[in-house]
Fold this protein.
Amino acid sequence: MEKKNTWETYDEAMAAKVDSFCDGYRNFLDKGKTERECIDEIVNTIEDAGYISMEQAIKNGKQLVEGDKVYQVWMNKSIAMYRIGKEHLATGMNILGAHIDSPRLDVKQNPLYEDGGFAYLDTHYYGGVKKYQWVTIPLALHGVMVKKDGSTVIVNIGEEEDDPVFFISDLLIHLSQEQLQLKAGEVIPGEALDIIVGNKPITIKKEDDEEKKEPVKEAVKKGVLDILKEMYEVEEEDFLSAELEVVPAGKAREAGFDRSIILAYGQDDRVCAYTSMRAMLDVETTDRTLCCILVDKEEIGSVGATGMQSRFFENSLAELMNLTGEYSELNMRRCLSKSCMLSSDVSSAFDPSFANCFDKKNVANLGGGMVFNKFTGSRGKGGSNDANAEYLGHLRDIFAKESINFQTAELGRVDLGGGGTIAYILALYGMNVIDSGVAVMNMHAPWEATSKADVYETYRGYMAFVKNAKEI
């Protein structure tokens, strides 16, 4: 089957809309380089659009009715958004779900040390990364440090032009003969991914002689601690209750002479989070209640209190149904089983430089439009949701009527690899779920690439879905 290039379906007016939409998307990426930052940006955006917190609605005893918009945040890392429709919740919802965590380096709890005249922060990589991609590039530090008194210090260093950045060293080419004989996965061990944060020792002058300087043990480390004390009023032990993430420094950029590509950190899966959120904001009132759930921990198995495997979504839905006067265990189960969902996650884009890793007939192309993955998983579809044919037929009908350009794909050649999403978790409720999203080149690398046209077409596809999907 022949695939259309989405750019060829656009006129000048539509192309201008694409650029405008993607300007907003790049701004979102710049402001949300961690889960917490994403949540802050999302909450600010949706509150401006009239959403209120679930907690506020509960406190005020508000009875939710058609058109009401509420959200609930969990542990500052996951969020569920709802827009109440005309029909009862027990008839099901239309759900968009994505994740907002991305591969990165996490700072350990006892991280700061000195060696060879350098101060380092010890890290542990998060998610699937090629470790060698993280050396010698400018890095930024984002996150929070929570003191014993409960106060939170927000850390964001490396993004402004006058900020310092950090880096991980690599062996110079002149001495790397042995290193280059290693397999790619062994070239940079995980314990070598420690970031250099200083090189200047602190000095203490004697009161009676300003020319003489007393040597200080671990003087470079102490110098860094002095700076942290001055900037943030934190002590070394405050690292014990900190969540600090090391990410590539720099803003999302347009790429190519034609500016058709976005090059940025964290597009897996914030590209689907942003397009899902915007679809929720921009759609008119619908028959079915709409839901957008954006979660943490997908890159490490959707585990923990903020991952999709937690009870957060169920608890949030129970509160929602209680506010509409519909709650019962049976009604909640009916709602979940009769819902339709797009599990919005990225797919691998065809890369001609590594063509042998793909099945060209069943691969997503940059510029090919929104992507559907009927199944993900690996080696025999292990860990896959595998959507049913009836649901795919329903979605094809919706997209045809709305003139949405889409493509279907698999994540690489059979037996080579694979991947997973949150789809299989939601499918446990018995609802119809399929993986969908944007094709990405360089997936999980510090800088990932997407097509502007695919980003916009996915937004249009999500709009079409939440307006028109129904139980089949």
Summary: Residues 6-102+265-468 form a domain with the Aminopeptidase fold (CATH 3.40.630.10). The two ends are 26 Å apart (CA to CA).
